[in-house]
Automatic annotation (TrEMBL):
Biological source species: Candidatus Brocadia carolinensis
Assembly notes: Homodimer.
EC assignment: 2.3.1.47
Cofactor(s) for this UniProt protein: pyridoxal 5'-phosphate
Annotated positions of the N6-(pyridoxal phosphate)lysine modification: K238
One of the GO biological process terms: biotin biosynthetic process
Annotated SUPFAM superfamilies: PLP-dependent transferases (SSF53383)
Lineage per the UniProt record: Bacteria, Pseudomonadati, Planctomycetota, Candidatus Brocadiia, Candidatus Brocadiales
Protein name: 8-amino-7-oxononanoate synthase
Residue span(s) of domain Aminotransferase class I/classII large: 40-379
EC top class named in words: transferase
GO molecular function terms attached to this record: 8-amino-7-oxononanoate synthase activity; pyridoxal phosphate binding
Matching InterPro entries: Aminotransferase_I/II_large (IPR004839), AON_synthase_class-II (IPR050087), AONS_Archaea/Proteobacteria (IPR004723), PyrdxlP-dep_Trfase (IPR015424), PyrdxlP-dep_Trfase_major (IPR015421), PyrdxlP-dep_Trfase_small (IPR015422)
Record bears the keyword tRNA processing: no
Pathway in which the depicted protein is active: Cofactor biosynthesis; biotin biosynthesis
Length: 394
C-alpha cells in the first residue's frame, strides 16, 4: 500500500486527459512568451493590461528594494507591517470607495480568510455555482451551511434566502466577472435581494479590477454600487500584473478581519517591493486611460472576428471561453494550437464542469490586431473554428 495510490491516481488522471502539467516560461510575461527557446503567442494570461512587465512597475519595485530590502521578515501583526503595506491599503480603500482595506498575500487567501472569519457553524453561506475555487474552498472550510444557486439565477438565490431564517448569520457571495466564463454577475439584483433578507454580501471583483469601471475601479463601481457591498474582495494578480489579494469595506470589518482572518494573521507579510509594484500599477491605470481603452478595443475586435463564425455571441470581458466539450478534445485543440505557435492550455474538470472543457482565451491590451487575426486564422487552420459553429458553447 504505502503511497502506491499516488501512481494509480496519476495514471487515472492521464487516462482521462486530466493530468495537469505546466510549461516553463523563459523570460517576461507578455503577448509573446518563450518556451524551450521558441516564441509563442499567448492568449492565456490574466495580465490583461500588460503591467506584469511594465517599466514603471519594475522601476517602482527596484526602488523599493533599495529602500526597504526584500523580505518583510514577519507576519503583519508581529512586525511585518511596513510603510508600503499601510500606503497600499489606504490606496485600495480610496480606489474601491470604502473606509478601509486589508492586504492578504494572495486573492485565494483573501477569500479564504474573509469567509472563514465571517461565517461558521450555525450560519449560512450562499454562492453562485460558478464561483471561483477559492470561494468554494472558503465556504466549505468555514463550517457554515453552504448552499449553491444555479449560475446567475437570482430567483433561486432568493428562494434559498427565504428558507434561511433559522440561521444566525447569512452571507451571499459571488464573483463579479466569472473567471472561466468571462460573464458578469447581476450585481444590482443581488444587492437588492441580499438587503431584503438582511444577508451580508461579498463580491469577488478580482477579474473586474483594472478592467471595468472608471479608471478600472471594477464592476461594483461600474454599476454605481460603491459603498453598497459589505465585503469587496480583489486581487493584484490579474490586470494589475502583480501579486496579493485584498478585502475592502468598513473600518469595523477590516479591524475584525485583522483579528479573525487566519490567512492574514498566520503568514508572513508581502515583501514591501510587491506593494510598491501594486501601488505603481494602481497609479498607472488611473493616470493612463489608454491601457484600458486598448484592452476594450481588443475585446471588441475579437468579438467582431468571432461573429464571422457564429450568429450570436456574448463577450463581456477579456475572458472568452471556446467550449470544446470533452477534456480529450480540449487537450487536442490546445496541442494543435501549440504546434502552431499559440499558447492556450485546455481548461478541464475540476476547474470547469465535466463536458465543458474549453479553451479560455484571455486578451491583453498589448495584443495587436495582427495577433488577434493570427489567433482566428490558427483556430480555423486547426479545424476548431468553422462556419458551422453557431455558439461559443457546444
Ligand atoms: C475570481 C477569482 N478570485 C480569486 C482568485 C485568486 O486570486 P490570486 O490569484 O490572487 O490568489 C482568482 C484567481 O485565480 C480568481 O479568478
Amino acid at each position: 500500500m504505502g503511497i502506491d495510490f499516488i501512481l494509480d491516481e496519476l495514471d487515472d488522471l492521464q487516462n482521462r486527459s486530466l493530468l495537469r502539467e505546466h510549461k516553463i516560461i523563459e523570460g517576461a510575461q507578455g503577448p509573446y512568451v518563450h518556451i524551450n527557446g521558441k516564441s509563442y503567442l499567448s492568449f492565456c494570461s490574466n495580465n490583461y493590461l500588460g503591467l506584469a512587465n511594465h517599466p514603471k512597475i519594475k522601476q517602482a519595485s527596484i526602488d523599493a528594494i533599495h529602500q526597504y530590502g526584500w523580505g518583510a521578515g514577519a507576519s503583519r501583526l508581529v512586525s511585518g507591517t511596513m510603510t508600503l503595506h499601510q500606503e497600499l491599503e489606504k490606496k485600495i480603500a480610496e480606489f474601491k470607495g470604502t473606509e478601509a482595506a486589508l492586504l492578504f498575500p494572495t486573492g485565494y487567501m483573501a477569500n479564504l480568510g474573509a469567509l472563514c472569519a465571517l461565517v461558521s457553524r450555525g450560519d449560512m453561506v450562499i454562492g453562485d455555482k460558478l464561483n471561483h475555487a477559492s470561494i468554494i474552498d472558503g465556504c466549505r472550510l468555514s463550517g457554515a451551511t453552504f448552499r449553491i444557486y444555479p449560475h446567475k439565477d437570482v430567483s433561486q438565490l432568493e428562494s434559498l434566502l427565504q428558507r434561511s431564517s433559522g440561521y444566525r448569520r447569512k452571507l451571499v457571495i459571488t464573483d463579479s466577472v466569472f473567471s472561466m466564463d468571462g460573464d458578469t454577475a447581476p450585481i444590482p439584483e443581488i444587492v437588492n435581494i441580499a438587503r431584503k433578507y438582511d444577508a451580508m454580501l461579498m463580491v469577488d471583483d478580482a477579474h473586474a479590477t483594472g478592467v471595468f469601471g472608471k479608471q478600472g475601479k471594477g464592476l461594483i463601481e461600474h454599476y454605481g454600487l460603491e459603498g453598497k457591498i459589505d465585503v469587496v474582495m480583489g486581487s493584484f494578480s490579474k490586470a494589475l500584473g502583480s501579486v496579493g489579494g485584498f478585502i475592502a469595506g468598513s473600518k469595523p470589518l477590516i479591524d475584525f478581519l485583522k483579528n479573525k482572518a487566519r490567512p492574514f494573521i498566520y503568514t508572513t507579510a508581502l515583501p514591501p517591493a510587491v506593494c510598491a509594484a501594486s501601488l505603481a500599477g494602481l497609479a498607472l491605470i488611473q493616470e493612463d486611460a489608454s491601457l484600458i481603452d486598448s484592452l476594450w478595443r481588443n475585446i471588441a475586435s475579437l468579438k467582431t472576428r468571432l461573429l464571422q463564425f457564429m450568429r450570436t455571441i456574448s463577450v463581456e470581458s477579456p475572458i472568452v471561453p471556446l467550449i470544446a466539450g470533452s477534456a480529450e478534445d480540449a487537450v487536442k485543440v490546445s496541442s494543435k494550437l501549440y504546434e502552431n505557435g499559440i499558447l492556450i492550455p485546455a481548461i478541464r474538470p475540476p476547474t470547469v464542469p465535466p463536458g465543458t472543457s474549453r479553451l479560455r482565451i484571455s486578451l491583453m491590451a498589448t495584443h495587436s490586431e495582427n495577433d488577434i487575426n493570427r489567433l482566428i486564422e490558427t483556430l480555423q487552420h486547426v479545424g476548431f473554428l468553422t462556419h458551422e459553429r453557431t455558439t461559443l458553447r457546444m
